[in-house]
Design brief:
This protein is α+β, with helices and mostly antiparallel strands. About 15% of the residues lie in helices and about 35% in strands. It contains one helix and six strands. Strands 2-3-4-5-1-6 form a six-stranded antiparallel beta sheet, with helices on one face. The protein is globular.
């Protein structure tokens, strides 16, 4: 399951990466406990409640992908909206959330 968070104006705030081993704290909302699994050039994977999530940049915004584990669509939506608020803040209304997949050629 892959989501994209896209600001209509192309705005991504400056991300404050965490300290070594916790760099991806800039993506993970503070009320979620996580273990960073991998990190490279501003992107990587974290484990949250036995689910493996990947954070990465797309052409238009930030991507979030569930790599391992099962969540309901409601649980995924709650998490993605929390990520959106964590990165852009609650007052920023220009960010759209998409369920993304491969476009057929």
């Amino acid at each position: 399951m892959k989501f994209e968070l896209v600001d209509r104006q192309g705005y991504i705030p400056d991300l404050n990466y965490g300290e070594a081993g916790q760099e991806l704290a800039c993506f993970v909302p503070s009320d979620y406990t996580f273990k960073q699994v991998s990190y490279h050039s501003g992107e990587g994977e974290v484990s949250i409640d036995n689910h493996l999530w990947q954070f990465f940049f797309t052409q238009e915004g930030i991507g979030v992908r569930l790599l391992d584990g099962i969540v309901s669509l409601k649980e995924a939506e709650t998490f993605i909206l929390a990520v959106k608020s964590h990165i852009w803040g609650d007052a920023h209304q220009q960010v759209q959330t998409f369920l993304a997949g491969v476009t057929p050629k």
